[in-house]
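Support reply, case 0932

Customer input (verbatim):
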Amino acid sequence: MKRARAVVLGLLAAVLAGCTQVPLAQPAPETAEPTAGPEPTELVVGMEDLGAGFNPHLLAHSSPLTTGIATLVLPSVFRPDPDGRLQLDTTIATSAEVVSDEPFTVSYELNLEASWSTNTPIAAEDFVYLWEQMRAEPGVADAAGYRLITEVRSRAGGKAVDVVFDEPYPAWRTLFSDLLPAHLLKDAPGSWVGALTGGVPASGGPFRIASVDPGRGEVVLARNDTYWDTPTVLDTLVFRRLDDGAVAAGLAAGDVDVALPEADPAVRNALGTVTPPPRVQPAALPTVTQLGLRAGDGPLRDPRARRGLAALLDREGIRQAVAPEALRADAFGLAPSEPGYASTAPDGAPARPDPIAAEQLLGAAGWTRDAEGSWIADGQPVQLVIAAAEERPEDRRVGQLVAAQLAVAGIGTTVVERPAIDLYTAPSASGTAPTTSPEPTPTTPAPTTAVAAEEPVVAGPVDVLVGPRTVGGDRATELASDYGCALPTAVVRDPPLPPTGFCFPALQLVLESLATGDDPVDPERFATAESLLWSQLPALPLFQPVSLVVSSPAADASTGIGAGPLTEGPLSGAAEWRAPAE
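Our regenerated output:
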């Protein structure tokens, strides 16, 4: 009976509802008060220049911004601690050790969680890609260690890597820094340069490149939400191209938090007007500006001609005019800011201008003067081509000053400005194989009329190349990379030639013994290398550039920014920075 009564009551309720067509009352939905999420946190960094690209392994892309972005975006097996000592980065590799001496083999166990922002694992293929590019591409920095590798083997589904060398290599910890995303680059035509000119297509670090706008002069980094370790505190880090006046105005208005301008009196004067005064710290850059001298052929093929040319130059005057706060460089190995640096330059020229020595050296190399005092070589008026990268204003100023000093001495010059990638990645400035003769037989050219420096000529191979060389890493590797011979190996049968075409067998033996020897800091062999380099002079060191680390009081407190390790710079700790307090 109870069940029947319930059914009847249910049918009656349905009929009544259908007749009245009045909807049943529903409780009003609760309207939640809108809750404002936290404001995105941002910090703005003023930069003097955005550079030519973002491949940290290319000299053509060398810039403070490229160095800083690589530190924050690209994975490295080892990173320098605040004192510059390399420490294993366990977010990338859980172990890295030498497992065999014959052949010399290093084994890496990679962090299983480490992956690119595309969710592709950071794996052995990234090691292979970097090794292949560094051993065979021109214009790379510190390639000597990679050229000693004979094999890179993958294990454990790519999460373990064995690297085999043909000789022991004490500086193996310097390798495989700033790994690049092989899965995106390895099959893309021109990817080594082209795909990294406008950014980095994937991140393996705490930040990622969100946008690059050359027109506005702005690069934006955003938090990499796929990062497997501690996330960044900031949401975005904005790099903005600003001149000295704009930096000062931005700091005063609170629109700029940190700035990294070139150190010079002009920017210091501009900053002197800012209230409250910002904190200003010097930070040496991991490069030395030098003059590469074409040794493969041409009028500077004789080392006496190169030394004679150097004896005509006032290097200190050039430094004072171009970068007065830069550090004078008088050595080929250590940079002036590095511990243990000391001048290795010989007494007299080319350490300082010496016109008498220059006259003697150029004459011994077969140069002569015409009736007007202009220099002749190989029967032709000397017309040296001096080149500087169009994206590097400081290098361009150096080139103009060098040309002016040589013109006064009777040497004709043509200054050309070309894209850095064309200058530094050319197979050879001379287009010929490097010379191996220390003292070519001088010739006696017939006198002719010199061509004035200002007369237009078609620029040929570059004789003097203004540009950077990297410093701050392993000294033996850097010397072997910058001044060693481009010798074929079983793996690379046609290695790229250095831009100057330089090769000196006696020096090569010393450099090889330093890079692969039992004592990587052997002072006697380093002294021998320095002496040979000053004698052969494949390049003339000028100065180590210095930037300023400028921070508002609020940004200084929220970031603790400083110069940072030489090879990583002031941005090395940016993953932990906080936005300045209002």
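We compared this against your earlier run and they match. Two observations from our side: The chain is about 25% helix and 20% strand. Residues 1-32, 428-458 have pLDDT under 50 and may be disordered. Please reopen the case if you see a mismatch on your end.
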